[in-house]
Design brief:
Elements lengths: L4 E4 L5 E4 L10 H8 L25 H10 L2 H8 L17 H4 L4 H43 L21 H15 L5 H17 L6 H17 L1 H5 L9 H4 L4 H8 L8 H16 L6 H24 L7 H10 L10 E4 L18 E7 L12 H14 L5 H8 L4 H13 L28 E6 L12
Antiparallel strand pairs: 1-2, 3-4, 4-5
């Protein structure tokens, strides 16, 4: 992190590069662990735990090391909020400061923290404090009815159960932010409504793709308005203090935007989504008995399958499907094999002459089953029942000859197609182009036909034997 390294870039030029650590985005619990501080203190500044709203200097490794040398562990914990017997992992890096690298987390600090955990809960506590439990429940039910009655619109979510969720997720909190403000209008004082307005304005500003100096001034104004109007909660006795780490993090957003750029909605779900594929899904596939080893094996196999898929895709082996490949193969063959109820299409994936694998699809077994209809079993019925079924068939106009079927389906060339098909079946070894054979030489079918309403075709494509497969 001090000496440059010469590297070759994609544009063909060589440049000297100094490696460093990027901003670290995480929730507050992990910030406490990374910064080696006490729960309830700020991981970025030296503001006192009971006075987080006040301005304070930023933390640094040199200042923390000096305090650790001068004071005992109890003084460090109670006065400075430092865990003296542990040090941050960035203390050994020459150009890294974990206190400065901690980036804003919009989801946990603003949406789920300040909005859901604080303001929404404070509104309920405020109503119970000012109006009593009975009247407060009536007001809260009316708020839930307003949330439920939100008209369906693009970008808005309907809440059939109001604001009550079995599990609060980030998407639930974001959707509730859009409809909660009009739901509480008229039930709470104007100061509370303005508090929500300031928080929503702050959230939308920090989500912008581009932030100018004027926007940063507007962000700071919304923070000041938020702290000004939320005093009604403390004046009413709803809460006792605003020294909350999530709300205090809002004060650092203007400086963090100048350091790291626009957050643009960046939050931990982007990285937590990888946790689902790497941990949650593999754990569900284990038997819960010592799952760590099983999860590691599952992840290794998934990585190998992904690598194989990339290799197969690069070789062009995943273009199309087995059916398309089989049809292309059949178009180059001179003869076709037939079966009464099943056919085997394609060829073996290995050459019988030299034992080497050839580039052709595996064999596909096709089995066709016709559905059983009532008119196919007239021979087993009594004469009276058979007569009724014949009348039913005549009413439904089921064709009995190929000519009648062609008229019923509106396909005048259907008899010709059948004659050409019969000619192909009769001369499979001596195959000729149908255009070269006159229709007078084609066999004529004049017997009765049976119409089947549907048919089910089952395809089975077995994989290559694992011992014969070439490892990748």
């Amino acid at each position: 992190m001090t000496k440059p390294t010469v590297m070759w870039f994609g544009d063909g030029h060589y440049r000297r590069v100094i490696f460093g650590l990027s901003p670290y985005i995480t929730d507050y619990e992990e910030q406490v662990l990374l910064a080696c501080i006490v729960q309830g203190w700020c991981a970025k500044c030296l503001a006192m735990r009971q006075e987080l709203d006040t301005d304070a200097l930023y933390r640094s490794h040199k200042h923390a090391e000096a305090l650790i040398k001068e004071f005992d562990l109890k003084t460090l914990r109670d006065v400075y909020g430092i865990v003296g017997d542990t040090i941050p992992f960035t203390s050994s890096f020459p150009c890294a400061n974990i206190y400065q690298l901690i980036a804003p987390d919009i989801l946990h600090q603003i949406i789920k923290g300040t909005f859901k955990d604080h303001l929404v809960e404070w509104v309920e506590s405020y109503l119970k404090t000012m109006h009593g439990t009975t009247k407060a429940n009536v007001t809260l039910d009316d708020i839930d009815q307003r949330i439920t009655a939100i008209a369906p619109f693009a970008g808005l979510r309907c809440f059939p159960g109001g604001r009550h969720f079995k599990q609060w997720t980030g998407n639930n909190s974001k959707a509730l932010m859009k409809v909660y403000l009009p739901a509480i209008e008229g039930h709470v004082p104007t100061e509370i409504v303005r508090t929500f307005c300031a928080l929503l304005e702050f959230t939308y500003l920090v989500h912008c793709n581009v932030l100018t100096e004027e926007t940063l001034v507007a962000v700071q104004d919304t923070i000041d308005c938020f702290h000004k109007y939320q005093e009604i909660f403390r004046q009413s006795g709803t809460i006792q203090t605003f020294s909350l780490p999530c709300q205090h993090a809002m004060k650092h957003y203007p400086d963090l935007i100048c350091l790291f750029g626009v957050p643009n909605g960046l939050c931990t779900p982007i990285t937590e989504s990888k946790h689902i594929n790497a941990v949650k899904d593999p754990y569900r596939q284990t038997n819960r008995n010592k799952p760590l080893g099983q999860m590691l094996i599952i992840n290794q196999r998934l990585d190998k399958l992904a690598a194989s898929r990339r290799d197969f895709n690069k070789r062009g082996m995943l273009e199309g499907n087995c059916l398309m490949a089989t049809m292309q193969l059949l178009s180059t063959q001179d003869g076709r094999e037939n079966g009464s109820t099943s056919q085997v299409l394609g060829s073996s994936p290995h050459n019988e002459d030299n034992g080497e694998a050839v580039d052709c699809p595996t064999s596909i077994e096709v089995h066709v089953e016709l559905t059983c209809t009532t008119h196919m079993y007239l021979i087993n019925l009594s004469s009276a029942v058979a007569h009724k079924i014949n009348l039913l068939h005549s009413e439904m106009k089921w064709a009995r000859t190929m000519t009648d079927l062609a008229i019923e389906l509106g396909l005048s060339h259907l008899p010709t197609i059948l004659e050409e098909f019969l000619l192909q079946q009769a001369n499979t070894e001596d195959y000729h182009d149908l255009c070269d054979i006159p229709l007078s030489e084609c066999p004529i079918y004049g017997n009765k036909i049976t119409v089947v309403n549907s048919a089910a075709a089952l395809f089975y494509a077995p994989s290559d034997i694992s011992e014969q497969a070439t490892p990748v």
